[in-house]
Amino acid sequence: MKSFASFVIAALTAISPGISHASGQLSFGITAPYTKVGGAAPLWNPSQTHAAVSGNDVYVAYGETTASGDEEVLVGHSADGGLTWDAGTVVAHGPSLVPTGAIAIGPDPLAPGAQIVHVVFGTMTDAYGNGTISYMHLRSGAWSAPVVVNVNPATADSGAVAVDGGGGLYIVWADATGIYTSRSGDGGDGFYVLGENVVQGGSRPSVAADSIGDQFVAWADDAGVWFSSRSYRGFTFGAPVYAGNGQKGGSPVLVALDANRMYIGYDWGMALGEFGIALSTSTDGGATFTSRNVVVGQTGHVGLAVSSTGVISLANDSSGVVVQRSTNGGATWTAPVTVASAGSEYPSLALASGKLVVAYDKQPGQAVYATKEK
Fold first, then answer.
1. Are 313 and 356 in contact (CB under 8 A)?
2. Residue 127 near residue 145, CB atoms below 8 Å
3. Residue 312 in contact with residue 304, Cβ under 8 Å?
4. How far does CA 127 lie from the centroid of its chain?
5. What is the C-alpha to C-alpha distance for residues 363 and 163, in angstroms, rounded to an integer?
């Protein structure tokens, strides 16, 4: 599954003439060649993180279907910041597996200086998409056995995962009644919380954590996008805070830069009404949010990454995969830059040494690819 590319794919294109542009927009420039990660199944839950980075090591969780019809979840690894990839490691397979996975990487709380790669995936147990959420990790060069982390039947493709600065692990998912979470303090060897309810109702949860272990969750419903948090000292989540724009919410992607600065990218609207892509931001730990429309009249799946200095990169697949950047909290944006041609979908973003890595499904069902900022 290793592939090398030979040409440049960046081009400027317009999405919404109503969006003002930040100064210095051409300093953006994603111009690295794209490379094939592998797989033949889409990264179809945008609320999940499908790409994770530690230093120059980039990991992408993806799926494929074998010739015999078996579904697989794989993890591809690049040791050069996303320019070349290994053949991918099959971490799970089975006829009812959901062929996609969520991924995170963080410190090993039991081995200072070491890192753990965490992967979450789902398995369907009925014809309605319900099933289990399973967890595995790569630690000291070996993959652990899968562990089921949900209690009640879950929406099998809804699992998401995050790690805090001390290696604490947080997994969220949705079921028919609400949003739930499981937590581990030893790097995923054991879970001291299984199936804690975050909120009643909602779908497509996204999860983040800060350096000290505060946990943050965003989700969507017919009213829009919502947010809740749990302090590392707390036992329960706070009351839900509305973070939307008054329209039906799609699949939110949550990034927590620290305990105060929250960013939620999401698609919104109805198929026969208004629709678009928005960013909601908070500077008070999620107590209040400011929502701004970034794209109006087009919609798509969203990818989001925020640098340590607060530079926001927002991707969508309304017409191929395009990325815009904001240096002022989302008030203004650069002109959109095309990083993958029309038909490419499901962008997932990460930062490698300060440069943006974009994983995406090229011509849905063909393969998962990646490109990196120049």
1. yes
2. no
3. yes
4. 26
5. 31
Q: DSSP letter at 175?
A: B
**Under 8 Å CB-to-CB from 115, ≥6 apart: which residues?**
54, 105, 106, 107, 108
Reading phi first (left if > 0) and then psi (alpha if -120 to 50, else beta), residue 24 is in: left
User: Per residue of the chain (374 residues), what is the pLDDT tens digit?
Assistant: 333 233 223 333 333 333 344 433 434 445 566 788 988 877 888 899 999 999 999 999 999 988 888 899 999 999 998 889 999 999 999 989 999 999 999 999 999 999 999 999 999 999 999 999 999 999 999 999 999 999 999 999 999 999 999 999 999 999 999 999 999 999 999 999 999 999 999 999 999 999 999 999 999 999 999 999 999 999 899 999 999 999 999 999 999 999 999 999 999 987 567 899 999 999 999 999 999 999 999 889 999 999 999 999 999 999 899 999 999 999 999 999 988 888 899 999 999 988 899 999 987 668 999 998 88
Take residue 245 and report the two structure tokens written for it. Answer: 């724009």
Counting every residue written for the chain, the total comes to 374
Q: Are strands 178-184 and 154-155 parallel, antiparallel or unpaired?
A: unpaired
CA atoms within 13 A of residue 262's CA, in its CB half-sphere: 31
How crowded is residue 66: how many other Cβ atoms within 10 Å of its Cβ? 12
Q: How far apart are the first and last CA of the chain?
A: 23
DSSP track, 305-364: EE-TT--EEEEE-BTBEEEEEESSTTSSBPPPEEEE-TT-EEEEEEEETTEEEEEEEETT
Q: How far apart are CA 72 and CA 325, in angstroms?
A: 34
Q: Phi/psi at 25 (nearest 5 deg)?
A: -65, -30
Say what the pTM is. Answer: 0.91
Judging by DSSP bridges, how do beta strands 337-340 and 345-352 pair with one another?
unpaired
Query: 258: closest CA among 295, 288, 284, 224?
Result: 284
Strand partners, 175: 154
What tokens were used for 330?
A: 């989302």
